[in-house]
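Incident log, support desk, overnight shift.

02:14 A customer reports that sequence design results differ from what the structure should imply. Their input is reproduced verbatim below. On-call engineer (initials T.W.) acknowledged and began investigating.
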């Protein structure tokens, strides 16, 4: 699943390309979207702005509709110049929003719907999101309250729960816990305030550092992530994806395990993260 920083970056890139511009073409394979477009054509409207909320991407149109998309595991938005060759096959196309200058193409997006902007606050998924780690007004006290409310859950599970903390995904979960030297399977009740503060500070610092808003090809955004200070592409992460390789601090082999309802992979160093 994409992390909050890649959704944030995708939203910023789409915003720079599309905001303020008239929509010249809208296409979708989702019948529910097409029906609304036919009744209330987007081609008579412009894109007001594009924003991320947790891992949801919201595209606001001047007529009062908001296109909400969620990428889950495989979805992505790309931006192309008109007539530029797509980097994905046409059969993966789910949505196109085109202006005179750019074509935004959503590939393999599993969740998409139009919402009236007035109804956004009450939306069933958006209203349940925890404080957004990348939000301008990250509510730290509320984040701590929500984490503490799950005292018997493991910290690894809690950090992935978007109702606790919006924006953190599986890569940062492992990296943050390594950097704070916390074992992923520690119950929340056994983590003191100082260690919890380390988790929140580190998560915020990493996600913000990994947000850039250049108009680069969006297919590469996932590959740019870095949590170490090293430039070598093979040394950008501490533990994620490094099963059985030596820890960068102590050289113990990195361990890997599945956890939680979705069997998400967790990477950790048994030496550095003993408790
Ligand atoms: Zn280690």
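02:41 Re-run completed on a clean worker. Output:
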């Amino acid at each position: 699943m994409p992390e909050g920083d890649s959704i944030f970056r995708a939203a910023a890139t789409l915003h720079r390309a599309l905001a303020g511009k008239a929509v010249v073409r809208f296409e979708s394979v989702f019948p529910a979207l097409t029906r609304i477009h036919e009744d209330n054509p987007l081609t008579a409207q412009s894109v007001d702005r594009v924003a991320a909320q947790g891992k949801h991407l919201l595209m606001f149109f001047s007529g009062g509709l908001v296109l909400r998309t969620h990428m889950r595991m495989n979805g992505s938005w790309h931006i192309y110049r008109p007539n530029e060759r797509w980097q994905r096959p046409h059969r993966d196309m789910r949505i196109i929003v085109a202006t005179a200058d750019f074509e935004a193409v959503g590939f393999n997006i599993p969740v998409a719907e139009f919402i009236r902007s007035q109804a956004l606050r009450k939306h069933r998924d958006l209203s349940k999101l925890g404080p957004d780690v990348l939000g301008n007004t990250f509510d730290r006290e509320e984040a701590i309250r929500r984490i503490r409310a799950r005292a018997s859950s493991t910290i690894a599970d809690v950090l992935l729960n978007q109702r606790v903390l919006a924006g953190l995904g599986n890569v940062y979960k492992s990296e943050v816990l390594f950097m704070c030297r916390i074992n992923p399977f520690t119950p929340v009740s056994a983590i003191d305030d100082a260690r919890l503060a380390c988790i929140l500070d580190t998560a915020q610092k990493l996600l913000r550092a990994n947000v850039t808003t250049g108009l680069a090809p969006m297919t590469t955004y996932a590959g740019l992530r870095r949590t170490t200070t090293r430039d070598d592409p093979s040394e950008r992460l501490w533990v994620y994806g490094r099963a059985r390789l030596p820890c960068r601090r102590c050289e113990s082999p990195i361990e890997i395990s599945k956890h939680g309802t979705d069997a998400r992979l967790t990477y950790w160093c048994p030496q550095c993260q003993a408790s």
